[in-house]
Design goal:
Elements lengths: L1 H78 L1 H52 L1 H18 L8 E3 L11 E4 L6 E5 L5 H8 L3 H25 L1 H4 L7 E4 L3 H10 L3 H7 L2 E4 L1 H79 L34
Parallel strand pairs: 3-4, 4-5
Antiparallel strand pairs: 1-2, 2-3
Helix pairs in contact: 2-3, 2-4, 3-9, 4-5, 5-7
Length: 388
């Protein structure tokens, strides 16, 4: 029984000794760690001190270098100020000029942008007014047509009339007078286009197509209405069609896309579809014919004036010729009187003067005959081939 107990106590004693050994080793390791950590913190503080000293040294050197550089730069700048300013002016002058041009262009762009915005607002207001009122559309169309009349050089009351009542109390918007003033072409300026402008604002494809088809139907309906009014037979002259003005090629193109035969359909109703371009061509042709007529009238007036001038010149030269004949007779009569005076009267006067029977110092004057005679060629006018 004693051996196992001894063995147990010996084992227990070994464990205690081993625990004490390991505890002592652990404490020694902790002490060594604390020593190493303390040494490391000392080295770190020393390194920070060295780094701080180096930083201060570097800053001091940098400050000295900067002060030295500023002194040198200031000296160089003051010593070469004139050359520097001239060089700067030469090099920066073109840049300043470009900057000024850029500033002017910027101002121009701002004004253009402001103008574009104002134009956009007016366009929107115009589109709203045109979509909402048929009267506004009619007035706008009439103003557009009158502008085209001005471009073609035609004058109101001479080459065209507006809102003039014709037979059956009809009143076409315009009547275009052809050269000579007998034939007239009626013109209507109230074409529908509300559906087309609505299609421009529509994003739905199906609805857009429906509005374009409605636009073509409205144009076709207006053609029917014009054909029923029969303006061409109500106005004077032999013109057999009415012009239907559509204020935009895009409006007519949109209708043509829906109905390619629309032009033939309108002409079969004796209605001529006209956009600003085609109307200007038509009015320019009419204006040219008017200019030919007016030119011919002026030629006739010139011929009549020339004939009247020739008659008056002929009468005038006859009077001049008669006056020349009378002057020639007067000169002959005067010379005869002078000759008679010098032959018969003057000698007797000289005898009285020689006998001192007259007032002293006042002799009788001798008359001189007129040697120049009037021209004889005034009695005949120069021929057409002779210079005047």
């Amino acid at each position: 029984m004693q051996d196992p107990i001894l063995i147990f106590f010996a084992f227990l004693t070994g464990l205690l000794l081993a625990g004490l050994y390991f505890k002592r080793a652990q404490l020694e390791a902790i002490r060594q760690r604390d020593i190493a950590q303390s040494q490391l913190e000392g080295q770190k503080a020393q390194q920070e001190a060295v780094t701080s000293a180096q930083k201060e040294t570097a800053e001091m050197l940098q400050q000295k270098i900067l002060e030295s550089f500023e002194g040198v730069a200031s000296k160089a700048l003051h010593s070469n100020q004139d050359q520097f300013l001239k060089a700067t002016e030469l090099k920066m002058g073109p840049l300043y000029e470009k900057l000024n041009r850029l500033q002017e262009a910027t101002q121009g762009l701002k004004k253009l942008d402001s103008t574009a915005q104002e134009l956009g607002r007016r366009s929107d207001a115009l589109a709203t007014a045109l979509r909402g009122s048929s009267t506004a559309r009619g007035q706008w169309g009439e103003q557009s047509v009158e502008r085209i009349f001005e471009l073609a050089g035609m004058k109101k009351g001479i080459h065209y009339f507006t809102q003039k009542v014709v037979e059956n109390q009809l009143r076409p918007d315009f009547q275009i007078l052809l050269a000579g003033g007998k034939d007239r072409i009626p013109l209507d300026a109230k074409a529908p286009f509300t559906a087309y402008y609505d299609s421009l604002q529509e994003e739905n494809v199906t609805r857009k197509k429906d509005l374009l088809r409605l636009h073509e139907q409205n144009v076709r309906e207006h053609i029917r209405i014009l054909a029923s009014k029969d303006y061409q037979n109500a106005v004077e002259g032999d013109v057999d069609f009415t012009v239907m003005y559509i204020p935009g090629d895009h409006l007519l193109d949109a209708a043509f896309e829906q109905n390619p035969n629309l032009l033939e359909h309108a002409w079969s109703k004796r209605v001529l579809l006209a956009t600003p371009v085609t109307l200007l061509s038509l009015l320019s042709t009419v204006g040219y014919q008017w200019s030919r007529v007016e030119q011919g009238r002026k030629v006739n007036e010139i011929a009549e004036a020339a004939k009247e001038l020739h008659t008056r010149m002929r009468v005038f030269t006859e009077h001049v010729a008669k006056m020349g004949t009378h002057m020639d007779r007067a000169v002959k009569s005067y010379n005869e009187v002078v000759g008679s005076y010098n032959r018969k009267v003057l000698p007797q006067g000289r005898r009285l003067e020689s006998m001192q029977a007259t007032e002293a110092g006042k002799p009788i004057a001798e008359l001189k005959p007129i040697e120049t005679s009037p021209r004889k060629d005034l009695q005949a006018l120069p021929s057409a081939e002779e210079p005047a």
